[in-house]
Amino acid sequence: MKLAAALAERGDLTRRVEHLKSRILTNARHQEGESPAEDAAALLAELEEVLDRLEVLVRRINRTNTSAPLGDESITDALARRDMLRIRHRVVSAAADAASGREQDRYGRQLRSEHVFVAALPVRDLRRTADDLARQIREVDLLVQQANWEVELLD
Predict the structure, then answer these.
(1) Among 89, 132, 137, 153, which has the minimal tally of Cβ within 10 Å of its Cβ?
(2) Is 118 helix (H, G, I), strand (E, B) or coil?
């Protein structure tokens, strides 16, 4: 099985866990003398089976990501780098928005006596940095996706 197929299955199992949780909570109580629409105990048993399968799959995915090379690093290293790039991108974009007064521009200045705000950060440079970070994120994503389709899942 390729890593990409395992990741898709992990996503399906994760959604199934959430669906089962919802069904369990819906059927956990019922009115005396009535029957619940579904057997909550049976749903809990099914949830345990799904979680057992999910745990095995996540362990295998993690082992594979840690050992599979992606250039000079492992897939796990690339994922960590991508996560940090995403955080940097969010912070730099938010800083550019704040420095440009994006939220305050909607109101405009009404009177001469109102306070005038000036940017404390170079907005244009921040936007360029954000664009560069977005490009780096896309590049890492492409490399990881390519590896996902080429790497076999470890046992």
Answers:
(1) 132
(2) coil
